[in-house]
Design brief:
The structure is a homodimer of 241-residue chains.
Chain A (H helix, E strand, L loop, with lengths): L1 E5 L10 H9 L2 E5 H6 L8 E5 L4 H13 L4 E5 L9 H11 L5 E4 L4 H9 E2 L5 E5 L7 H13 L3 E5 L9 H9 L8 E6 L7 E6 L12 E5 L5 E3 L2 E3 L7
Parallel strand pairs in A: 1-4, 1-5, 2-3, 2-4, 6-13, 7-8
Antiparallel strand pairs in A: 8-11, 9-10, 9-11, 12-13
């Protein structure tokens, strides 16, 4: 049995019942070392398999190999395993190898939803998720999605917004967005949400401090109706009040 | 204290720790009657306030009024309270009334994420959420968003896909989508996900049976790389395997 478990962005508080149960029931826990640290207290008596960033394919192959031996394995993803996480890669590899193992994907709270709750209610109308990581999706494709999302006035959730290798991409993204949205558009920033040093900030595109943003930050760009009240970011659903 | 609680789509399994705690700690539970039924066993000894569909503004006003009296109140939303839920309306009303109450939004697993986990891994690349309910957003705006999302090849999650009043909107949406996406594009359907009679189905736009879809269904339309393997819907993240 191979569970693919989304553990949420960090805090045990926003982990689901099912995720906790799957980890408890598993003999072997596989995951990126940073995420295993988050659930350290749940790992006693269990075998753990971890590696570093960019080792995703090898990590998933190991998890499948162990599950094929008949062990109960939990593959850990941060947030939700199906959103830029490990669920897709596991299923792709299982298909390719024609591996006969039982698989269950266990959903979790993804970072944008956790950040949104802390920031107010920015996702109350139609929204997009776009990852600015151009390792696996060409920057040209990502740019075309940012353009389309801004033009149709979606609320935009940017994942992996600013890497040390490509810090300029976020500014490029904002330059595309401001072709259509005002630079007074509300922006919410959630950094290390549900972790020890979490910070949230509500600002505007114009006032954005790019230096504050890194890869553990979620950037939420509002639509034209999004406003700030009591330091919270609110996108109206459209009720008449 | 007013907690705005996302209870997930149904099953207690995918409720978060924090949501359960907030409900336990609350003296008064407010919510749409269908959602209160889901947590019926948690309501013993508590005051409940509920009403029917379309009574959202009144329901939120009541919750605020009770919280202002100093009671601990939980306002219940299905899925995540910040995604087409009650978080935005509560914050809008609190701002308008200038109500001095403490508010905490507690995130939950939204229906698309729960459906995606059951269907495979459809949301592994950039995606949009669009509600087809035109009560509060003009159909023209919704159509422009569907057009933009399809053109830029987002995976598209359709909420409220087919009402009895406006059953034709889903077909209209698919007609826009097939201007850009092939009618062989994979579609995942999650109906009553995490509830008693849940069903999932992986199909294509061409093979879609509109009659099967209602307001408690989530429709996930893949991107051009989405494929079916072992009856699961997989959108590749882009790893070379």
């Amino acid at each position: 049995m191979l569970y693919i478990v989304g553990i949420g962005p960090g805090s045990r508080d926003i982990m689901t019942q099912e995720a906790i149960r799957a980890i408890k029931q598993s003999e072997v826990i596989v995951g990126y070392k940073t995420y295993l640290k988050v659930i350290e207290d749940m790992l006693q008596g269990k075998e753990t398999v971890s590696n570093g960033m960019r080792g995703e394919v090898e990590r998933c192959q190991k998890a499948i190999k162990i599950a094929k031996k008949g062990k109960t394995v939990a593959m850990i993803s941060s947030g939700d395993a199906g959103i830029y996480g490990m669920a897709g890669l596991i299923l792709e590899l299982v298909d390719k190898e024609d591996a006969e193992i039982e698989i269950k994907v266990i959903p979790g709270v993804t970072a944008s939803i956790a950040a949104a709750a802390k920031l107010g209610a920015p996702l109350m109308n139609d929204f997009c998720h776009i990852s600015l990581s151009d390792h696996m999706t060409p920057w040209k494709v990502i740019k075309s999605r940012i353009d389309a999302a801004a033009k149709a006035d979606f609320v935009i959730c940017l994942y992996n917004p600013r890497s040390s290798e490509r810090p300029e991409l976020l500014k490029e993204a904002m330059d595309i967005i401001t072709k259509y949205k005002s630079d007074e558009t509300v922006v919410g920033i959630g950094k290390d949400v549900a972790r020890v040093n979490e910070t949230e900030k509500v600002t505007t595109i114009k006032e954005l401090n790019y230096e504050e943003i890194n890869m553990t930050t979620i950037v939420l760009v509002g639509n034209k109706h999004t406003y700030i009240a009591n330091d919270r970011m609110i996108t109206p659903r459209g009720y008449e009040i």
